[in-house]
Fold this protein.
Amino acid sequence: MTIKKKFTTVIKINGVKIGDPKTFAIIAGPCAIESEKQMDAIAKPLAKMGVKLLRGGAFKPRTAPNTFQGLELEGLKIMKRVANKYKMGVVTEVTDSKFLDEICKYTDMVQVGARNMQNFQLLKELGKIKKPILLKRGLSATIEELLLAAEYIISNGNPNVILCERGIRTFEKETRNTLALATVPLVKELSHLPIIVDPSHGTGKKSLIEPMTKAAIACGADGVIIEVHANPKEALSDAQQQLTPDEFKKLLKNSNPIMKAIGKTMQ
Ligand code: PEP
Ligand code: MN
């Protein structure tokens, strides 16, 4: 890999500095935006816990075509209204560049999902906008391919890229993916870009999300993105991996000693 680290990129979104060595960013919210009531029910407790960045999918890349596909533009408007109410920033996934202009109106950070990490045409379009991009590692992408995908965005004019380790597909079947946490310190050696971890998609199992969050903090990640739903059992996607607000609160509390031990504060 040839990308050389000459500086550290720090990206500020809604007051949260991602990439700053002294802070750890928390992004939380449901897998998908389902309704205004559902978004309010989760944003309210998250805001109370100090979470400043809200996630939620409006364009859902689902494996099966007969499952919930997302509320699309209507969903974006819902999330923005709710986020404004609680003074939160918003991140959502783009699956097709034809929606990019609309998505940019309603979001503070644009997510490229694992399935689109090497959609080079989309990456080039994302290079033309100014919004920060959350680039998730592809299901079977190497670290080199992840960094080169980031280069597509950067070399087309947008330097604001945050990488995300969200697990890769291996022979292991007990977890949804294999969360490759060594990616974090390695990316820190190879690149100036911030990197966060997604322990929700990385494991697909509620019980593993807290231990993997602690591990992400300990290995030097710049933040985590975690799926949280007021009523996970009723969730229209990824019901098995979404935490309740109480479970998430406990995760934050239990992660704090590790945060302190490495001299970071949670944002
Ligand atoms: C998501 O974060 O909503 C998502 C679909 O994740 P991934 O692209 O990592 O599978
Ligand atoms: Mn999900």
